[in-house]
């Protein structure tokens, strides 16, 4: 492979890896803040225990996120220096402001939060984790604005002397219509990532082993699982609504991308959406597909009879507009990542919804170790027969569940970035022009191997530590049985030694 | 005032803050396994930086981000010109951050020992690479007309050619010894008991080694001789203060020295940001690399509102964790 291909592969590997941890950090920060607020308002001990658990998961996730995020910040200059020169005037300010505004907040206040349990007044301590949560959102918004420029360049002019982009208005850059839809879509996807993880951890500990129902922490694990279930299911709805919105905007600013998502070669009125399609390699139309009539026209333009432009027609238009060249992205990748994104995300939301239905009104999952119900009258009615197999299915899906939203996020980004090719900045700057000209493929290969090894180790270590955190007992048993065991949870929590806070 | 010049100053400020704050973080990372004879003592040493290292490291994010925003050409040429050393730096920082953050998340002494070793080695590596990179950058790169350092003679030759030069080696020595000295003075200021005593015993040797490295740097790089004299005088003052038990003063003196060296490195070439060793006309200067007025104005407004706040809340974080850290078990 030459320098360009290796650099693209490296960018993909490094960016996808970073994005395993980003959505999890965003959602776990908000969930930690929510749980601590619940503890603050109710004084119930199990909320505090859950806050610590989710907060620790946040800490280890954030650590990997921050060190891999540093790579993101460097890599535009490392292997894509000509892109950095072209785009620096627009992209630089966003990156700088993200760092100054959001990254400092997150990093500083997360340290204050984790180590400040016994140093800060309770209200201020609660505020620190909310500041972290808000910081992650600001971070996401500002950096997505930079990406939205690459999808839909606005607020710039081309310098006639240097041929480089020059920033015209930062304010306009921040309200790119693509970002206005991409941000909520991304945040909903992030929320689902954290929700699915908490659901998986909570449900497994509440119902997944012998004696779990009688365990003193059963109620807390159940709370965690239900919280995760609500977040997963609701963010599923939000993902779908915002995704539809984003799709319509992308259809207007990058019609080629949506045509590739469907593999639609000829423009068509009342275009159908295919669930699956099989085509001959190198040929346009598939020879087999399962279609939903009119759906693509609805998805793209909100009108069942609207004309959706096809790849071939767009190619002809672009050749006229930008000169000779191939402007059609890698269609099979666009087609399949688009479907896999929707499929994995919706599957996770479905598991969340089914779980919520099964465990509503104090009921539990009916598993091999669980009794019929958790002290609640057995469910009646025609659907009661389904409880056992449905519970089984939910329990069986748990080991895979946290991976589903992660996959959906990943497929989504692969789709977004590869279906924009050959452009780095749509209509302005091609990928092949951005790569550092001084680099040799040996250097890129060496760095790619370095990232591969270190990132591989980090993944294994993160997984083991996260498992360890999720597998520990929630709270130490009361040290002295004579201690006042009444409803004085709050005072006890305030006096509690912070043995489980910074275990350094 | 010219906004580009202002931003050059702010870039230097970010580097100063990063290299001072992370300087003692690196030092603590290297010294913890040596000074801590058992797990609680090592834990105490690391607890002096655990709540703040993340915020300290963000000054690197700020330095690089601000460079990208204010001087895109400098950012592009510096990073692509020193490709492999920069990648090594990133990988070292990755191992270091994760080792530091993960060590306390598992209650297992073998796990902690492994994390401590990873932390010590990566801290030393990062300090050395940073020193080498700064040493090389001060001397300039073989920048061509397009702003790129061409890989003549292959990747390995280029990387070795950059990193196995006197400037790089001396830079690495200065990087490691200054981190050790910063770490030793910081630890003696922030801990109690045996860790504090042992940290103090490291101050004089580290200062001596740094003095040696600094004199070599002055002799080989054409830095003004009085800079070497100032460095040696400050080091002497730091050692004296530490001997007398004035740990705060010792730390302050070392911090001033570190800041001075960083400022000298950057300001010496101004207005040249990155000198081309091939042709002075291809050097990257403040004027040639500056972003547009719109971009500079945008980040100026942002910085005006944001940076004072950052400085205040970071100072607050140090204030909250101002108490000396003890290796005694937490009273329950």
UniProtKB/TrEMBL annotation, chain A:
Under the heading InterPro entries, the entry gives: Cyt-d_ubiquinol_oxidase_su_1 (IPR002585)
Bilayer-crossing residues are 16-38, 50-71, 91-115, 127-146, 182-203, 224-246, 336-358, 393-415, 444-465
Q: List the GO biological process terms.
A: aerobic electron transport chain
Q: What is the annotated localization of this protein?
A: Cell membrane
Gene Ontology terms for molecular function: electron transfer activity; heme binding; metal ion binding; oxidoreductase activity, acting on diphenols and related substances as donors, oxygen as acceptor
Q: Name one GO cellular component term.
A: plasma membrane
Task: Write out the coiled-coil annotation as residue ranges.
Answer: none
Sorted alphabetically, the keyword list is: Cell membrane, Electron transport, Heme, Iron, Membrane, Metal-binding, Transmembrane, Transmembrane helix, Transport
This protein's source sits in the domain of life called: Bacteria
Annotated region (Disordered) at 474-504
- Provide the topology term for how it sits in the membrane: Multi-pass membrane protein
Pfam families, per the entry? Cyt_bd_oxida_I
Extent of Basic and acidic residues compositional bias? 491-504
**Major place of residence:** membrane
Record family assignment: Belongs to the cytochrome ubiquinol oxidase subunit 1 family.
Q: What is this protein called?
A: Cytochrome ubiquinol oxidase subunit I
Give the organism, scientific name.
Serinibacter arcticus
UniProtKB/TrEMBL annotation, chain B:
Q: What is this protein called?
A: Cytochrome d ubiquinol oxidase subunit II
The record's InterPro entries line, in alphabetical order, gives:
Cyt-d_oxidase_su2 (IPR003317)
Q: How does it sit in the membrane?
A: Multi-pass membrane protein
Q: Which residues form a coiled coil?
A: none
GO molecular function terms listed in the Swiss-Prot or TrEMBL record: electron transfer activity; metal ion binding; oxidoreductase activity, acting on diphenols and related substances as donors, oxygen as acceptor
Keywords (alphabetical) are:
Cell membrane, Electron transport, Heme, Iron, Membrane, Metal-binding, Transmembrane, Transmembrane helix, Transport
Which family does the record assign? Answer: Belongs to the cytochrome ubiquinol oxidase subunit 2 family.
Q: Does the keyword Mitochondrion apply?
A: no
NCBIfam families linked to this entry: cydB
Provide a GO biological process annotation. aerobic electron transport chain
Say which species the protein is native to: Serinibacter arcticus
Q: Which Pfam families match?
A: Cyt_bd_oxida_II
- Keyword Heme annotated: yes
**A GO cellular component annotation in the UniProt record:** plasma membrane
């Amino acid at each position: 492979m030459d320098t360009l291909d290796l650099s693209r592969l490296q960018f993909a590997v490094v960016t996808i890896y970073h994005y395993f941890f980003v959505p999890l950090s965003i959602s776990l920060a908000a969930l930690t803040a929510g749980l601590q607020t619940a503890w603050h308002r109710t004084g119930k001990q199990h909320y505090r225990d859950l806050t610590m658990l989710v907060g620790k998961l946040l800490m280890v996730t954030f650590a990997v996120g921050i060190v891999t995020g540093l790579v993101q910040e460097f890599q535009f200059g490392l292997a894509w220096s000509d892109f950095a020169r072209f785009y620096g005037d627009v992209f630089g300010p966003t990156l700088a402001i993200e760092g100054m505004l959001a990254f400092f907040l997150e990093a500083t206040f997360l340290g204050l939060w984790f180590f400040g349990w016994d140093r800060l007044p309770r209200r201020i301590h609660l505020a620190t984790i909310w500041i972290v949560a808000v910081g992650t959102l600001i971070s996401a918004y500002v950096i997505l604005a930079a990406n939205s420029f690459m999808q839909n360049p606005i607020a710039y002019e081309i310098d006639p002397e240097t041929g480089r982009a020059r920033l015209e208005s930062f304010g306009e850059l921040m309200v790119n219509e693509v970002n206005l839809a991409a941000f909520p879509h991304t945040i909903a996807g992030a929320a689902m990532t954290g929700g699915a993880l908490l659901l998986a951890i909570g449900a497994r500990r509440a119902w997944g082993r012998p004696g779990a129902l009688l365990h003193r922490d059963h109620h807390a694990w159940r709370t965690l699982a239900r919280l995760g279930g609500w977040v997963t299911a609701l963010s599923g709805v939000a993902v779908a609504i915002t995704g539809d919105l984003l799709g319509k905007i992308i259809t207007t600013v990058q019609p080629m991308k949506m045509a590739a998502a469907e593999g639609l070669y000829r423009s068509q009125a009342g275009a159908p959406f295919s669930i699956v399609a099989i085509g001959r390699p190198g040929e346009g139309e598939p020879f087999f597909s399962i279609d939903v009539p009119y759906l693509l026209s609805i998805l793209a333009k909100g009108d069942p009879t609207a004309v959706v432009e096809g790849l071939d027609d767009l190619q002809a238009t672009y050749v006229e507009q930008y000169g000779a060249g191939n402007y059609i992205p890698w269609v099979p990748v666009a087609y399949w990542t688009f479907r896999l994104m929707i499929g994995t995300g919706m599957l996770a939301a479905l598991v969340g919804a089914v779980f919520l239905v099964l465990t509503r009104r104090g009921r539990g999952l009916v598993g091999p170790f669980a009794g019929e119900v958790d002290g609640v009258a057995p469910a009646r009615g025609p659907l009661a027969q389904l409880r056992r197999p449905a519970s089984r299915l939910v329990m069986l899906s748990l080991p895979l569940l946290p991976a589903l939203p992660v996959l959906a996020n990943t497929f989504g980004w692969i789709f977004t970035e590869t279906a924009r090719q050959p452009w780095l900045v749509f209509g302005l700057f091609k990928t092949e022009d951005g790569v550092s000209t001084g680099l040799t493929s040996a250097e890129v290969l060496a760095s790619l191997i370095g990232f591969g090894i270190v990132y591989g180790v980090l993944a294994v270590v993160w997984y083991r530590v996260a498992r360890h955190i999720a597998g520990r007992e929630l709270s130490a048993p009361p040290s002295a049985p004579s201690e006042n065991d009444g409803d004085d949870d709050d005072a006890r929590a305030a006096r509690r030694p912070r043995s489980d806070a910074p275990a350094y | 005032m010219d906004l580009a010049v202002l931003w050059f100053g702010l870039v230097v400020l970010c580097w100063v803050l990063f290299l001072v704050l992370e300087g003692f973080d690196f030092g603590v990372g290297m010294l913890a396994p040596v000074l801590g004879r058992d797990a609680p003592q090592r834990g105490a040493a690391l607890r002096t930086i655990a709540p703040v290292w993340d915020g300290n490291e963000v000054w690197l994010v700020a330095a690089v981000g601000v460079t990208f925003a204010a001087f895109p050409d400098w950012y592009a040429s510096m990073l692509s010109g020193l490709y492999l050393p920069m990648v090594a730096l990133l990988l070292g920082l990755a191992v270091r951050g994760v080792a530091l953050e993960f060590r306390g998340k598992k209650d297992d002494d073998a796990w902690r020992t492994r994390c401590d070793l990873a932390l010590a080695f990566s801290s030393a590596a990062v300090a050395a690479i940073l020193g080498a990179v700064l040493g090389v950058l001060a001397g300039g790169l073989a920048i061509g007309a397009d702003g790129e350092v061409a890989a003549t003679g292959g990747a390995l030759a280029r990387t070795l050619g950059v990193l196995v030069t006197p400037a790089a080696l001396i830079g690495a020595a200065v990087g490691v010894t200054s981190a050790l000295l910063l770490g030793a003075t910081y630890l003696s200021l922030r801990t109690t008991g045996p860790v504090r005593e042992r940290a103090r015993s490291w101050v004089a040797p580290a200062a001596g080694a740094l003095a040696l490295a600094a004199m070599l740097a002055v002799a080989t790089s054409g830095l003004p001789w009085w800079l070497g004299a100032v460095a040696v005088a400050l080091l002497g003052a730091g050692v004296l203060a530490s001997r007398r038990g004035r740990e705060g003063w010792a730390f302050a003196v070392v911090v001033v020295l570190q800041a001075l060296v960083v400022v000298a490195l950057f300001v010496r070439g101004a207005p040249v940001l990155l000198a081309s060793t091939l042709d002075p006309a291809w050097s990257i200067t403040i004027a040639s690399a500056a972003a547009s007025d719109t971009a500079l104005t945008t980040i100026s407004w942002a910085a005006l509102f944001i940076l004072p706040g950052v400085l205040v809340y970071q100072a607050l974080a140090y204030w909250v964790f101002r108490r000396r850290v003890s290796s005694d078990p937490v009273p329950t």
